[in-house]
Amino acid sequence: MRLPSAAVLGVALLLDPLPKPSPPPTPAAPAAPATSVISAATADPWAAKPYLGWSSYSMQVYSGNGKWITADQLIKQSDAMHKKLQKYGYDHLNVDAGWNDGVDANGRPQPSATLYPQGLQKVIDHVHANGQKFGLYMIPGVSPAVYEASLPIAGAPGCTTHDIVKQPTQQADYWKIGYRIDFTNPCSQKYIDSIVDRFAAWGVNFVKFDSVTPGSGISDLSLDARDDVAAWSAALKKHRIWFELSWALDPKYADYWRSKANGWRIDWDVECYCANDALTQWQNVARLFPGLATWWRNGGDGGWNDLDSLDVGNGGMDGMTRDERQAATTLWAVSAAPMYTGNDLTNLDAYGLSLLTNPEVIAVNQAGVPARPVSTATQQQVWYALNDDGSYTVALFNLGRTDRDVTANFADLGLTGSATVRDLWARTDLGRFTGKYTAATVPIHGVRLLKVTPQPGATVAVNDDALRVGYTGEWTRNGGAEVAATTQPLALTVTDTGSPAPASSSGPVRTITHDDTDPGIAYAGTWSQSTGRGLGDFGDGVHYTERDGDSFQYAFTGTGVSYVTEMDTSQGNVDIYLDGQLVKTVNTGREPGQPRLSQQTVFTADNLTDGSHTLMAVKKSGSYLLVDRIDVLQPSLLDPPAASFDRKAPADVQVKLLRAGSELTGITGLTPGTDYTLSGSTVTLRSAYLAGLPLGTTRLDFGFRGDTLDDVHATTRNGDSVSYTFTGTGVDWITATGPDQGLADVYVDGKLARRVDTHAAVRATQQTVVRVAGLTNTRHTVKVVKVSGDVLRSDVLRYTVK
């Protein structure tokens, strides 16, 4: 969040930065919309790479003085950046809230005469003379004062600032500073144009647009700044001015933000709002990880996920340890986020300079390929990106509380075979490794940053949502077209009565229970665990928090979900979000004098599309928010879901799979061919194996394969295509087959290589439907074009390294 000048768009009053409000209702961004349409928009050339530079806001907060941004201070920061950082690519100087004071005769914001007694133009000219770009800050709307003044709009005869306000008047921004603009009136665009034209005349190169909704703490569309964003985008593009949106934008509208802007803040402020103590704190960095697990797909190709200021330049001010400062820098770099520091550039320490100026780390950032996590369900996280040259960038983060080894399994990256590994922070080659690389004793909140280069004979599998996979037409990601990997237990009861129980009938769905300790539950804020409660909780324990705004998030695959907790007089309201949308506020409290209740289902959603979803809950009131368990509904895959075996009447047990038999990956602990056999979609558990089980109930876990990484892209329109360019000697197209699919043409370097049939009687995942070998070891492009069928899915393109 940015605390704006109340003079933005004309309130003739300056606000100093205020304390940060309650922690965000969306501290971990909800899952990206499953049905977002893939577009092939051309990137703005001035935003081809993430920018590097400096922003004033962290120092405004740290100093406790919103008017810290004086002409003298900005000139000092510009000179320091020119001397220390500019040769490494840092060239943006962005001034945040508080730069303006009142408006001119046409209702356009004008610079503060107090802060810039010789004019802001002198500062801008100095910045430009240093070879740098200059940025300013704005918010949506028109102030009441400008509305009442009914000022003529420059370049728009007959238009006034009174005409352009939506009637009846409505709130335009988070802070209730201005009125909403009516963009159905052509005068409104003229007004925005007049402001931007003036900025361009001054030499402004960058505009930060704050309080953008949906986002900025409000995503229920009671505030909606998308019309403002569109108007500012149109005006700024004419002048090739970088357009940055802020803050905590709603990822459901990621495609819209991308179509209009060059960058977008994905979370709340990084500052700790602890004036004269620290700029930030580790928890404000750590909370970015789960959000980036969603947003990474939306970065790259001229539009960038903004993580806020990178405050790592001075250990006496940053509020983080050296390891945390390095981990933060790594996260910004591998996320291809704009790297702009908020430190006082005149007071950087040697270690901070080394972090900000490591050329190999900067090169990772400037490659513009956002990294993705292998999993966020662990504190030892592996993030990776496949670069244009065929190498991988791999970051090994230890988010835990003790030093730990962190291992990158090459298969998780899509790499089979061997690779060389280089440590980019140490700038040292580590050698050649096969199958995996383990970084020993990564410190608490520390990181290792690697370049992993596949060696001859290796294969590289490129998932459908990798950045450089190109889509032409109307493709969507998932939206029910995907199948996720999963397991389902068979409850097998062993008796010795001589009368085996009849098989259980199969139900349409099954419930999977996840205790509060499940590593897949992402807790954001100040959570603790209470165990041995003796109150009837599932697993006899809960997670709890006492701070409003703290949240938990759980990403799941299925058709329904339930949130189960206690209900007690000490608890209160909880906002429930499903797939990023606020769906309900539930009350987990009880009236005074009523007894505590355990294992209470306070929220349930069912009849969801069978696919990927995200549940999130945010504490709103009461002394406590508790998590006991989360129940997920999934379609049953076994018929029957329970069976029996009697030692005195031994017989094989047959189980029908409700998915293609080829999807079975195995039964945990059992040897295929010996303990069980598979014929078609029928599994036969051998009597000889069953006879060795103990009396009572044994759980047998059946594993099922899904689409790679549980996602696919799909299109229903003939002629739509997917393509990828690689350097290698062969390529495979691996995708789903199914009864709703048909023919596809596969081209290599523009020539038809093969027409393939992706139709099948039943849905099957990860099928190699075409293989092209014997290519020269040069650059090639493979393209797959939909010819027929209701839908075409694309999962993986895998190529062979020479």
Care to describe what's here?
It is a single chain. This protein is 16% helix and 36% strand. Helix 2 runs parallel beside helix 3 (120-129), helix 11 (322-334) packs parallel to helix 12 and helix 11 (322-334) runs parallel beside helix 13. An eight-stranded parallel sheet has the order 12-9-8-7-6-3-2-13. Strand 19 (418-423) and strand 20 (428-434) form a beta hairpin. By secondary structure, it is of the alpha+beta class.
Distance between the termini: 49 Å
Looking across the biggest beta sheet, what order are the strands in?
A: 12-9-8-7-6-3-2-13
Helix-strand category: alpha+beta
DSSP E strands, number = 54
Give the CATH superfamily of the largest domain.
Aldolase class I
**How many domains make up the coordinates?**
5
- Proportion of helical residues: 10-25%
Low-pLDDT runs of 5+ residues are 2-40
CATH fold call of the largest domain: TIM Barrel
Mean of residue pLDDT values: 92
CATH architecture of the largest domain: Alpha-Beta Barrel
Question: What can be said about the biggest beta sheet?
Answer: 8 strands, parallel
Strand content: 35-45%
What sort of overall outline do the alpha carbons produce when their principal axes are compared?
globular
CATH class wording of the largest domain: Alpha Beta
- Total helical segments: 15
- The gyration radius over C-alpha positions equals 29 Å
Secondary structure elements and pairings:
Layout: E1 37-38, E2 52-55, H1 57-63, H2 71-84, E3 92-94, E4 100-103, E5 109-111, H3 120-129, E6 133-138, H4 144-149, H5 186-202, E7 206-209, H6 226-238, E8 242-245, H7 254-260, E9 263-265, E10 271-274, E11 278-280, H8 282-286, H9 288-295, E12 304-306, H10 315-318, H11 322-334, E13 339-341, H12 350-357, H13 359-366, E14 372-373, E15 380-386, E16 392-398, E17 404-409, H14 410-413, E18 415-416, E19 418-423, E20 428-434, E21 436-442, E22 447-454, E23 459-463, E24 470-472, E25 475-477, E26 486-495, E27 509-515, E28 521-524, E29 528-531, E30 541-545, E31 551-558, E32 560-567, E33 573-578, E34 581-587, E35 597-605, E36 611-619, E37 625-627, E38 629-635, E39 638-639, E40 642-646, E41 653-657, E42 664-667, E43 676-679, E44 682-685, H15 687-690, E45 696-704, E46 713-715, E47 721-728, E48 730-737, E49 743-748, E50 751-757, E51 764-772, E52 778-786, E53 792-794, E54 796-800
Parallel strand pairs: 2-3, 2-13, 3-6, 6-7, 7-8, 8-9, 9-12, 26-40
Antiparallel strand pairs: 1-25, 4-5, 10-11, 14-15, 15-16, 16-22, 17-21, 18-23, 19-20, 19-22, 23-54, 24-47, 25-46, 26-45, 27-38, 28-31, 29-30, 30-37, 31-36, 32-35, 32-38, 33-34, 33-36, 39-41, 41-44, 42-45, 43-44, 46-53, 47-52, 48-51, 48-54, 49-50, 49-52
